[in-house]
Amino acid sequence: MPVVKADLEACQGYANCVVGASDYFDLDDDGVVEILRTEVPEADRARVTEAARSCPVSALKVEEA
Amino acid sequence: MSAGTVVIVGSSIAGVRTAQSLRLEGFEGEIMLVGEETELPYDKPPLSKSVLAGTTDEDSIRLLTQEQADTDGIRLLLGYRAVGLDITENMLELEGHEPLHYDQLVVATGAAPRPSPWGQPPGIHVLRTLEDARELRRDLLRGGSLAVIGAGFIGAEAAATARSLGLDVTVIDPVPVPMSRIFNPEIGHWFGDLHRENGVNTMFGVGVESVEGEGGNFTVHLTNGKSVPAATVLVGIGVTPNDSWLSASGLLVDNGVVLNEYCQAVDAANVYAVGDVARWRHQKHGEDVRIEHWTNAVEQAACVAHNITHPDQPRAYTPIEYVWSDQHDWKIQVVGRVGGNVDHVVIGHPQIHGRFVALYTTDGTTLRGAAIVNWPKALLACRIGMAQGTTVQGLRDKLEPQLQPQPTGAS
Asked: Which residues form the Reductase C-terminal domain (chain B) (predicted)?
């Protein structure tokens, strides 16, 4: 199953991912992304990939596990 | 699933994301991505920040490599400028290349900086492309002072970057309070303070009469009789959509390609537009809207890809506006609509808390837009709040308890 990976150093807290998929992403108090669920079932793949791609600093990837 | 050939004109963020989103939506036909620049597609926001500062290398801002394009079955046709469109025959005309047939066309030609009204000899710059950024950086590294004409996002970001490189910087803008086209004056003043605290000379409320001299030794003459010496000049006075190549196409073009709520051209159902060049019917605002921001390009690309692949279930495009700007140590984020003469509530203060949010409302209750500085949780609350219809009071109740005075003063 594909998994979500985050580059916490790159994250700048733009929150596009949370707006795109709030069931997978959140921001902590410092504005760094929190991954709420790592595994992405096929039914969610397009939506979560779009949310990851909406990151302005490419801090998120959906990859094959 | 739909097939045929989709031709995308424009290889910046809106065009690239349309191509990628088409594949994500399962599009099985041919995708051609045509770009005027010979460069592999790259991302523009870093150009006034990390690329100009030299802290990011060019490879890391590529939006698409040849390998990724091959993997996704995206044919790249770079270095060709679109010069015309025949919407009867479905043909795209290119300079120096035979015309391309399309079944669906996506116009993503973006916008171009307004040229300098004071001439553009070497040393007077605009900043839009990677090559623009390289040339400006080359001049900044020669040292000397920088004069920035225009205190909008690009000018303000480039000024902050030049300060970080140790240059003397003057920002000139005819508007008395910077950013007051976007925000209310109280907050605009804070932006002015931010620049001055970081060593930028500001000359607001005064225009530029002329620029004399040559690269390395310019004199910027102001309308108040004063002058500013500068080794390098950057002109950041806005952009205009790249739509003139469509003027004879029969498509309705009016400060951008005019589209319906599904981002289809009003005169041709198989022509779409995305990004800075697109003016579409925003159903929630009840008016035609054109937005020059990164997030809009990404969201609009996804919507158009959906509408091309799901013609029976098209989605109306009704985004909540979002833009960010990094200036000195401020991360500025704007959600929704903040312009115009509307009421506002400010929570926090840059000197006391190092963060603040301004909530804008027309009726005193409903959130219309927000400007957020250095406050991630407030950003999230405002973006989600806008989508869910949160009230201004609801956001105050949530955000005011989060404020803590910052003993160090300014952030």
From this structure: 322-393
Q: Identify which of B24, B324, B377 has the shortest CB distance to residue A27.
A: B377
Q: Which domains does chain B have, with CATH numbers?
A: 5-112+240-309 (3.50.50.60), 115-237 (3.50.50.60), 329-402 (3.30.390.30)
* B:357-376 residues touching chain A, CB 8 A cutoff: 376
Task: Evaluate the CA torsion angle A12, A13, A18, A24 in order and state its sign.
Answer: positive
Which CATH number is A10's domain given?
3.30.70.20
Q: What is the ipTM of this complex?
A: 0.92
Q: Which domain holds residue A54?
A: 3-63
Q: pLDDT, tens digit, for every residue of B173-207?
A: 999 988 877 788 888 899 999 999 999 999 999 99
> Which chain B positions have a beta carbon within 8 Å of A16's beta carbon?
295, 298, 322
Is the pLDDT assigned to residue B161 strictly greater than 50? yes
Counted domains in chain A: 1
Considering only CB atoms, A50 lies closest to which of B45, B302, B384, namely B302
CA distance B370 to B231: 38
Report how far residue A12's alpha carbon sits from residue A60's, in angstroms, rounded to the nearest whole number: 11
pLDDT in tens, B280-325: 999 999 999 999 999 999 999 999 999 999 999 999 999 999 999 9
A31–B376: do the CB atoms touch at under 8 Å?
A: yes
Encode B309-324: b = buried (16+ Cβ within 10 Å), e = exposed. beeeebeebebbbbbb
Q: Give the pLDDT confidence of B250-283 residue by residue, as tens digits.
A: 999 999 999 999 999 999 999 999 999 999 999 9
Residue numbers in B near A59 (CB within 8 A):
none
Q: Which residues of B touch A15 (CB under 8 A)?
A: 376, 379-380, 383
Report residue B298 as tokens: 């990404």
Residues from chain B that touch A13, judged by Cβ atoms under 8 A, are 331, 376, 379
- Kindly state the tokens that stand for A2: 């594909």
